[in-house]
Amino acid sequence: MRGGAKIFFIPFFTSIFVSAAVCFLFFVYGIPFLERVEVPDVRRATIDQGRLIMENRSLFLLVESETEDPSIPEGSIINQSPLPGSLVKKGTPISVVLSKGKGGIALPNFSSVPLEEARRILAEMRLKIGSITERSSVSVAKGSIISTFPSPDSIVKEGTIIDLVLGRRLGQAKEILERAGLRVGRIDYVCDIEKLFDIILRQNPRPGKNVPKSTVVNLTINTEEEE
């Protein structure tokens, strides 16, 4: 009888142990597997679209970085990790890289460039002309550009508005100085409403003074808007 009881209880307890082990392994590995979801493809989707798609799969979208990509619109997703089709647990963060769109371009130096030529170049670069003002100049021809805003070499994007300052020619001041072997130096601008505009009010060294060749002559110009 005792031998029969042993034969009965050994398989009985063995089956209980095996069943418990199977249940344990199922709860540890089986349930998490059942909670896994397939990662959807959100590449080229906007960030808002991507978030909505991920939330519908109980996943979390995380922006890892941004980079320039002319082929992908700004604010759209370039890449993702894990890749589409991967099986992950619910609540897993999915990292994405966003596009900044087209990169910026450096604004050329338009100094002394005629206005019409500048218009053509800016149109080709898909930039827009903003305000156009004039300023007296002894070195830039009338109708040519003295300066721009933003300044040369500034990084701008397509559609940026560029303000232009054009030159108003002041007679033959530069040519006269160059024929005398002198050079134009600093040009200061003042506004004196009691005197004519666009004339040279002062120069240094003063007229009539004997100076060596290549001397720099600084000029003060009367303009409608003081610099």
List keywords for this structure.
single chain, 227 residues, alpha/beta, Trypsin Inhibitor V, Chain A, 3 domains, 3-stranded mixed β-sheet, 4 helices, rod-shaped
- What is the succession of H and E elements? HEHEEEEEHEEEEHEEE
Largest sheet, strands/sense/barrel = 3 strands, mixed
Reading off the top of the CATH hierarchy, the class of the largest domain is best stated as Alpha Beta
Q: Helix amount, in percent? A: 25-40%
- For this structure, the CATH topology of the largest domain is Trypsin Inhibitor V, Chain A
Strand order of the largest sheet: 2-5-3
Strand content: 25-35%
Distance between the termini: 118 Å
User: What is the count of structural domains?
Assistant: 3
Tertiary shape = rod-shaped
Which spans of ≥5 residues are poorly predicted at pLDDT below 50?
Answer: none
Number of strands: 13
Put simply, the count of helices is: 4
CATH architecture of the largest domain: 2-Layer Sandwich
Average per-residue pLDDT, rounded, comes to 84
What class, by secondary structure content? Answer: alpha/beta
